[in-house]
User: Fold this.
Amino acid sequence: MNIILFGPPGAGKGTQADNISKKLNLHKVSTGELLREEIDSNTNLGVKIKSLMDSGSLVSDDIINNLIINIFSEKKFSNRIIFDGYPRNLSQAKSLDLLVKKHNQKISCVLSLDVDKEIVIKRILGRQVCSNCGLIFNKYFKPSTKDNHECDEKYLNKRSDDYEKVIANRFETYLNITFPILEFYENQNLLHKINGDNQISVIYKEIEAIIASLET
Assistant:
């Protein structure tokens, strides 16, 4: 099963992708994480990527698509991928479509989390990422506690692109560039829209029900 988790920045894709990947033993592919790994390596490409992300702009399709091609070359991930943050525009969606067919795989469903702009801003401003284990928390909605996080609080960091002006820019970019691919997947009868304003547990239960209906 290959799943695409779709929605604007701050929609909660990362949290839901973590839940789904653990439940179904899927390999989570987050282009954001792949890009930040390149940034952490401090390569020339990483410096370029950081500049684009800090301004709220999208990284070029060529860079993103090459990262995805590398994932599909791993046979152990065949038909067990959940995409978090990819594709981000129609061109990437069409490239993914070709890759899936080339490797005799398929997209099982596309889950779209619809979230209000004001909620998106609050979610992102409160977002914290653990640099030690990679888990994502939110000081407003899902704070790190001793019960859900084993690492020291010193590892919790705010991402460099998580600031209100950048967030608003990214949200508009999503509406103008990324949103049209919903129609692309809707035409393939793959799209399932979910109210992303709900609590994390409520959203996950709805996702579970959708996935269960696909398996019957």
